[in-house]
């Protein structure tokens, strides 16, 4: 059976009981009333912070002595009894299985909850688990907030940052409790957003630990004490601002990325290459360095310049994609400057860009070509579209109709002639460039 507030106070005696009663309703001290389940480093620290602010939390832990060890005033025998006398319940257990047990057990939070209860999940779980648990709470009229917190060792000192996911109204209702244990509360977005932010934060932490390990191994291989490396880095960048410099440029200063990106890419590739050489000479495995160099352009958000040979190869491959397999094989070895530009730049750098599909680019070219009134050029584009299955006969009819109005009746007539010629050869089983005997359909 769920304990009443008076029953929770009853076990206390003397000065302890008077202190609690003087502060107001059980589990409150200051409204809204708070409960904490799980008194490890995070949960215990949160409960201590709440009590220090006068918001006396009702607490529960599987270890009966945990509350007493932390000097907390009110301990309940079950999670259900915490929920019964709380407006906001904070859960800080290890994993999703423990969260569900605390919520759904015979004496769990949901068994004692009243509609309107807010459950704040402090445990770090996968985002899909968070969303599933939020759905499980909904039929009980209980709202779930996911709340990643960091750094955990500051929980008892009101020193953490809380990253919250959930709807605006629920965050507003829980905010007084959140603000009593966190130095900063950040509403990151809808359900799951707080946990996603915490997970991303963890990636930065663990990822930089690995980076620091690889850097220290390289320094040690050259006879440098890792402590010396630490001193140099801390002296050069005491606030650690370098970590986010480029990420911040990508989000707020795209013009810097565009202008400086290629030069930074060259330097990044060169410097990481030197790190790889040092690692290879000393038998050191540096997977982060390898990935950082391989994906440098992606990291910086710049388009990596291809070598002339690469551009030509991409251009020839793209020509075959645009107009049919085998066309590239018919390109002469001795090419004019105009043909080189066509292959290397038009097809190697424009048609090959990922921003538009080949079909979309085809439609753009058809519109532009219509303005020239060149039926022969229209035929070339339509043949490529038919080979690739990009346009049907019905769609071509609609294109012809629209271009009559936008390109003028004379140019529209040329478009119609080019489409008719391509369709006639298509229906007669034309052979795509270099296609030996296939109809190209």
Automatic annotation (TrEMBL):
Pfam family membership, one: NAD_binding_2
UniProt-listed InterPro entries: 6-PGluconate_DH-like_C_sf, 6PGD_dom2, 6PGDH_NADP-bd, AhpD-like, CMD-like, HIBADH-like_NADP-bd, NAD(P)-bd_dom_sf
Domain Carboxymuconolactone decarboxylase-like as annotated: residue spans: 339-412
Domain 6-phosphogluconate dehydrogenase NADP-binding: 35-189
Single GO MF annotation: peroxiredoxin activity
Domain 3-hydroxyisobutyrate dehydrogenase-like NAD-binding: residue ranges: 192-299
UniProt cross-references to Gene3D superfamilies, sorted A to Z: AhpD-like (1.20.1290.10), N-(1-d-carboxylethyl)-l-norvaline Dehydrogenase, domain 2 (1.10.1040.10), NAD(P)-binding Rossmann-like Domain (3.40.50.720)
Signal sequence, renumbered to the chain: none
Database matches in PANTHER family: 3-HYDROXYISOBUTYRATE DEHYDROGENASE-LIKE 1, MITOCHONDRIAL-RELATED (PTHR43060:SF15)
Name of this chain's protein: 3-hydroxyisobutyrate dehydrogenase
